[in-house]
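User: My instructor asked us to take a sequence, write out its structure as tokens, and then describe one feature of it. I'm not sure where to start. Here is the sequence I was given:
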Amino acid sequence: MDFRMDKSSWVMIALMLITFFYFIVNGHGELSAMEILKVALLALFVLVALLAIVSIPVLVICYFIKKIPDIDYSIRAAFVFTIIGIISELI
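Assistant: Let's start with the prediction itself. The structure tokens for your sequence are:
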């Protein structure tokens, strides 16, 4: 697996992290400084878990089409999953 990332992937990761942080804080209400740190770590954990889960189908698909897997594919798939989540949350 190729772990070099495009600049757009870094932007997608930042947007996903901000989105997860926003929706967790939005559900809690008023938070202290320690709770904000916990929410930030939870948002980071959710981001890493989402990327790990999405990497599995990316590896399988790349194996069958005989293409070298790239971390950018996983990040794009996770970003699409996040966009779908945002749309379903707003509806």
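For the description part of your assignment, you could build on this observation: Residues 22 and 43 are 9 Å apart (CA to CA). Try explaining in your own words what that tells you about the chain.
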